[in-house]
Design a protein that fits this description.
By secondary structure, the chain is an alpha+beta fold. Helix content is 30%, strand content 21%. The protein contains seven helices and ten strands. It has a four-stranded antiparallel beta sheet with strand order 1-6-7-5, with helices on one face. Helix 1 runs parallel beside helix 7 and helix 6 crosses helix 7. The longest helix is centred in the C-terminal third of the chain and has 23 residues. The structure holds zinc ion. The site of zinc ion has 7 residues, from loops.
Length: 264
């Protein structure tokens, strides 16, 4: 499922291939992908313009059509953006296709359909209306400590709560906790100052490194937890057996040997 690093890789691809190219045609092949706007209004807002900028906040991507509305893209479980040359066919499951004036295309590929698109006047207002918290990479250490340390319940769901901290999902919350050596079921408000500092640094390191690697078309490092989320796999740090448990309805992987409970 696309989390902050996957969407950041899409933002960088959009910035290098999707801006300042006139959108000559808009083909929405699945009207269900549009929320709060009709096919006609959607096409009308985009056709004839070129995207002037692209921004990411959390797991959401915003592309501005000329100096008008923002196209808001949510990628759900499997959503992706695919840029095609004039001679390449868009993917089979494309929900919409923009054709640029030069014949190239941009497709929103979404085989499992949970992604969607909408239009917004401005980003700040959109985030406020939808109760989206600050981007996980934008927070100062103090703000991060206040938000995570001030959350009731366990630390993993605190990291994943998009209204408090936007961008982190199931896989990267496990990775960040693994890096910070904190168990996912630790109570957030019991974490020590040192643990909260380690968690903030791990958040920056994990999301930053993953964004760079995915943007370069590389896999995540093999010594990360993400590469070992499976039955019988060993911890890439200490060699102990990894465990998993359900926390907040999501399967969470961790190493009981190198991750600690809260010590605050
Ligand atoms: Zn370990």
């Amino acid at each position: 499922m696309p989390e902050l690093p996957e969407v950041e890789a899409l933002r960088r691809a959009f910035a290098s291939r999707g801006l300042e190219r006139e959108v000559a045609d808009v083909d929405v092949t699945d009207a269900d992908v549009l929320h709060g706007t009709s096919q006609t209004d959607f096409a009308g807002a985009v056709r004839g313009t070129s995207f002037s900028s692209v921004k990411r906040h959390g797991k959401t991507l915003f592309a501005r059509a000329g100096d008008g509305l923002w196209l808001v893209m949510h990628f759900g479980m499997t959503g992706d953006l695919v840029f095609c040359g004039p001679d390449e066919a868009p993917p089979d499951h494309a929900r919409f296709v923009f054709t640029f004036g030069d014949g190239g295309r941009l497709a929103f590929d979404n085989p499992r359909k949970f992604g969607w698109l909408e239009l917004a006047d401005d980003i700040e207002g959109y985030l406020e209306d939808n109760d989206v918290g600050p981007d996980a990479l934008s927070l100062s250490e103090q703000d991060f400590r206040d938000i995570v340390g001030g959350t009731r319940g366990r630390v993993k769901p605190a990291l994943m709560d998009q209204s408090k901290l936007a961008g982190i999902g199931n896989v990267y919350s496990d990775e960040i906790l693994f890096r910070a050596r904190i168990r996912p079921d630790a109570k957030a408000s019991d974490l020590s100052g040192e643990q909260l500092g380690a968690l903030h640094q791990a958040t920056l390191d994990v999301l930053g490194t993953a964004s760079d690697r995915l943007s370069d078309g590389k896999a995540l490092p093999s010594d990360w937890l993400a590469a070992h989320r499976d039955e019988g796999e060993s911890c890439p740090r200490c060699g102990g057996t990894l465990l998993h448990m359900k926390i907040g309805g999501r399967t969470s992987w961790f190493c009981p040997g190198c991750q600690e409970p809260a010590d605050g």
